[in-house]
Amino acid sequence: MDSGYNAHMTKRVYLVRHGQSESNVSGIAEGAECPLTPEGERQAAALADRFSRIDIDVIIASPYVRTKETARIVNEVLKKPLEYNDLFIEKRNPSEDIGKKIYNLEDTLASRHFTDPHWKKSDEDNFSEIKARALAALIYLIERPEETVLVVTHGWFLRVLIATQLLGDALTVEEYAKIWRYFWTKNTGITLVEYDPHNLNRGWRLITWNDHAHLG
Questions:
Q1: Quick check: is 6 in a domain?
Q2: Of residues 56 and 107, which shows the higher confidence score?
Q3: Rounded distance, CA 51 to CA 29, Å?
Q4: CA 212, CA 216: separation in Å to the nearest integer?
Q5: Which of 4, 146, 171, 210 could pair covalently with 57 via S-S, beta carbons 3.0-4.6 A apart?
Q6: Greatest alpha-carbon span in the chain
Q7: Is 89 part of a structural domain of the chain?
Q8: How far apart are CA 39 and CA 18, in angstroms?
Q9: What whole-number distance in Å separates Cα of residue 44 and Cα of residue 52?
Q10: How far is CA 68 from CA 79, 110, 162, 165, in A?
Q11: What is the pLDDT of residue 113?
Q12: Edge-to-edge, what's the strand order for the sheet holding 148-153?
């Protein structure tokens, strides 16, 4: 089946972190159901105004509540096709940790187990699974027929996407740890990447990182 993808087309992908969520403020481990705060809704409205001056073909969002709310507010202005895709969800926390203060958790991916890409506490994502999902997400974006795509996702996973663009399957958890600590993400920050199949770095190029000028 013809996907409509043009192998010679340069694709622009805007990767956006969701607006401020209630868990961002309270410092608890998030699940899928955490909504935006009123400030997060304001940030999403400012993001919508920013994208009203940018030509977008489609919006793809994580189906988590905070990303769906951000995408909905943006699309009230853009009125573009809007799809939800599990490839772009956040790193899943252990079910028993959701709602707990992050600094009280015994084991997180930033703890002593960070360097083991296969370790699990229970039902969370480990690093190997997240990397595999990021690589699949990149293929999915490449094969989309649209020229310009807006993805509403999450801070942790956004950095994994950037890291896999840079290093591909060779990305290690130690290398990602450096990127995770250095490349911070602001709520509704905009990261622009381009895909050109003729580019030597697996086709991907970082254009803009974490642009949040729309927040003032």
A1: no
A2: 56
A3: 30
A4: 8
A5: 146
A6: 50
A7: yes
A8: 12
A9: 12
A10: 14, 27, 22, 25
A11: 65
A12: 82-84, 58-61, 148-153, 11-17, 190-195, 204-211
Q: State how far the Cα of 106 lies from the Cα of 112, in Å rounded to an integer.
A: 9
Q: Which residue has the tokens 């998030």?
A: 30
Q: Check residue 122 and give left, alpha or beta (phi > 0: left; psi -120 to 50: alpha).
A: alpha
**Total domain count, the chain:** 1
User: Cα(first)–Cα(last) distance of the chain, in Å?
Assistant: 46
CATH number at residue 94: 3.40.50.1240
Q: Residue 73 corresponds to which tokens in the numbers above? A: 């507010």
- The residues pairing with 190 across neighbouring beta strands, listed in sequence order, are 16, 211
Residue 82 near residue 75, CB atoms below 8 Å: yes
74 found inside a domain: yes
User: What residues make up the domain containing 64?
Assistant: 11-215
pLDDT tens track for 170-199: 999 989 988 988 999 999 999 999 999 887
Asked if residue 23 lies in contact with residue 40, where contact means CB atoms within 8 angstroms, the answer is no
pLDDT tens-place string over residues 44-84: 999 999 999 999 999 999 999 999 999 999 999 999 999 99
